[in-house]
Amino acid sequence: MYRGSEGQWAFYLHRISGIGILVFLVLHVLNIASAMWGPEVSNAFMKFYHQPVFQLGLLVLIAGVLYHGFNGLRIILMDFTTWGVRYQRQLWYGVWVLFVVFYLPFLVKIGGGILGGSHGD
Amino acid sequence: MQVTLKILRFDPAKDKKPRWETYQVEAEPTDRVLDLLHKVKWYQDGSLAFRRSCGHGICGSDAMLINGKNRLACKTLVKDLGSVITVEPIRGLPVEKDLIVDMEPFFAAYRAVKPYLINDEPPPQRERLQSPEERARFDQGTKCILCASCTTSCPVFWVNGTYIGPAAIVQAHRFIFDSRDRGKRERFKALGSGSGVWRCRTAYNCTEACPREIPVTQLIEEVKRAILFDSF
Amino acid sequence: MAIKSKRYQEARLEASTNLELYWWVFMRVSGVVLVFLLIGHMWMNAVLVDLNSIDYDYVAKRLSQTTWKVYDWLILALALLHGGNGLRYVLDDWVRDPAKRFWTKVVIYSLLAFLFFLGSLSLFNYDYGVN
């Protein structure tokens, strides 16, 4: 493994989260589109995805979206400001601060749901 | 001190794949990695192949992947690495033997950005004058020694090698921002293609690898903005 | 400028269009929009409501309102373009064999186009019997 520092890991994480989000998007659109075949089919899908495993997956996904989004803003700052590149490391730590702030409500709500044994029935 | 030196070796006549070879070398903490390679080649195993020329960090011959980072063997001290040192050839270029890679794809990318002054205007009586500020604008790019540390540290370059690479973009920057130059559109052509500057994903390995401390990513972003503002 | 390319691939690289620049700009513009759309989307459907209560009726009610039709369609379109182009970047960077790269792209672009069609259809062509 090449021993790069923050910039390299920001890049790899951006890639992995991006691919993950795209995979989720495929499943998510198929799931929502199933409503076209009526309530029975649709509810069966929904129930399937309400299993705790998928909720954990959703927590990972939300983490991915938040990271990808905030790091994307960091990339935009680097591209369009004269100072962004110089402070890319600090910006990356800023990304993580924003990440934690925005992720906590999701973690509490969905994580609480999983621990509380809620399965939508 | 005793140093364990692990070198990734490859002999095209014998090996199908590169193999690790370990050497025990007696070294001073202030020795350079290049000195260790010399000790191995001169006293232990004469078949070891590597490039070096000036040995003082200016010819750009001995860029290697040392302890997981691209650096010049002649500018890297043992005391900064510890007692176990791994040396591999730089990545993304075809290995010819041991630590020697074929630099031709790297220089092809360099030539693609036309690294020379382009100006068809009739030359003035004496010289093309430039203010100190105008000279300072492209100063950082002039420090490049074409060692390929940056280009071969780039995750985009490693697999396909079709990316023009940070070194070529730094060279383009040196002329695009030169007040005497009139060839920026020609260079934008090479840089704007599918293998050009837009493939930079800002992973910053290049900036960290540069032994001349050129802010490579900063220069790449300036080139991106120059093309952007030129096109819109 | 003299023509120097010997192979089609080289000619394509040499031919200069601004296409890559436009995609680069699109990634940034769509990215900014998506950040806000997606945080809103996730907040509304995962924090403000219990995720596990989401069923056919919830989806039907939500998607029969024009606002959410447009909101969700915007996410669909931008995310597919942004994600599709992002994946193209990944394939260009990390798939070595040109033939493999080409066919992977064909499959993925088809899949994304189908998804766009399906998603749009389910957003606009049905009112789920609510109206």
Mean pLDDT of chain C: 87
Describe the sheet with the most strands of chain C. none
Q: What is the count of structural domains of chain C?
A: 1
Shape of chain A: elongated
Low-confidence stretches of chain C: none
Strand content of chain A: under 5%
Shape of chain C: elongated
Domain 2Fe-2S ferredoxin-type (chain B): 1-91
InterPro entries (chain B): 2Fe-2S_ferredoxin-like_sf, 2Fe-2S_ferredoxin-type, 4Fe4S_Fe-S-bd, 4Fe4S_Fe_S_CS, Beta-grasp_dom_sf, Helical_ferredxn, SDH/FRD_Iron-Sulfur, Succ_DH/fum_Rdtase_Fe-S
Protein name (chain B): Succinate dehydrogenase iron-sulfur subunit
Family (chain B): Belongs to the succinate dehydrogenase/fumarate reductase iron-sulfur protein family.
What labels describe this entry?
heterotrimer; A: 3 helical TM bundles of succinate and fumarate reductases; 79% helix; elongated; B: 232 residues; Ubiquitin-like (UB roll); Fumarate Reductase Iron-sulfur Protein, Chain B, domain 2; two-stranded antiparallel ribbon; 9 helices; 7 strands; 3 iron, 4 sulfur cluster binding (chain B); 4Fe4S_Fe-S-bd (chain B); iron-sulfur (chain B)
Could you explain how this protein is built, in words?
The longest helix of chain A is centred in the middle third of the chain and has 29 residues, at 52-80. By secondary structure, chain A is mainly α. Helices cover 79% and strands 0% of the residues of chain A. By secondary structure, chain B is an alpha+beta fold. Chain B has two domains: 2-101, Beta-grasp domain (Ubiquitin-like (UB roll)), CATH 3.10.20; 104-231, Fumarate Reductase Iron-sulfur Protein, Chain B, domain 2 (Orthogonal Bundle). Chain C is an all-alpha fold and 131 residues long. Chain C has a single domain, classed as Fumarate reductase/succinate dehydrogenase, transmembrane subunit (3 helical TM bundles of succinate and fumarate reductases, Up-down Bundle), CATH 1.20.1300. In chain C, 76% of the residues lie in helices and 0% in strands. Chain C is elongated. Chains in contact: A-B, A-C, B-C. The B-C interface holds B 155-156, 159-160, 162-163, 186, 188-190, 192-196, 198-199, 201, 224, 227-228, 231 and C 1, 12-18, 20-21, 23-25, 89, 92-96. Chain B: Belongs to the succinate dehydrogenase/fumarate reductase iron-sulfur protein family. Chain B: Keywords: 2Fe-2S, 3Fe-4S, 4Fe-4S, Iron, Iron-sulfur, Metal-binding, Oxidoreductase, Tricarboxylic acid cycle. Chain B: InterPro entries: 2Fe-2S_ferredoxin-like_sf, 2Fe-2S_ferredoxin-type, 4Fe4S_Fe-S-bd, 4Fe4S_Fe_S_CS, Beta-grasp_dom_sf, Helical_ferredxn, SDH/FRD_Iron-Sulfur, Succ_DH/fum_Rdtase_Fe-S. Chain B: It holds the Pfam family Fer2_3.
